[in-house]
User: Fold this.
Amino acid sequence: MKRLAAIALALLLAGCATKQPVTANLDLRIGAQPATLYQNAAANIQGTDLRNDKKVIRYTVKDEITSELPTLTPPQIILKESLSRGFEGQGLAINPAARVHMTVEINELLVKVDQPQILHDIHAKSVITLKVVNGTRTLTKKYNREETKETVTKPKIAQLEKILNDQLSDIAQQILKDEDIRKTVSAI
Assistant:
């Protein structure tokens, strides 16, 4: 009887344990945009993920991967939708039939947490390429963000999501403010 009670207690306690998320949540913040930057201009925006491994968070202990998390919504869709909203806020019409084509490419997007000894090493890197094609004009820009830090305790998923969200939001803001992009899109 004691054994049965111990098993029941173990099952009850296991059910109360917090569950580890199975996906990371990316949520970009781009803020309000000046509404008069584009007039009578339209563009088609596409997104593509060029990474071989689609995970965005990876934990390792002494070079052994212990857990990995993808995103629920693919990051290229999140970035494409955020940029579309931002450009629309600036007055650019988003139209799949537009002659101006923008392609957002995810080259790298990963935050790694390594625990080689006692400390946890956090290394986050985001590399995004934006290509704009307007007739015979082509503009290609690469945006890089990288961050490294150490912590005594294992960082929570929410902390790692914030690092990636901040990097992607910063890149999206830089794209939306880029004068070269504006000139290429508006060129006739």
In short: The radius of gyration is 21 Å. The mean pLDDT is 89. The longest strand covers residues 100-115.
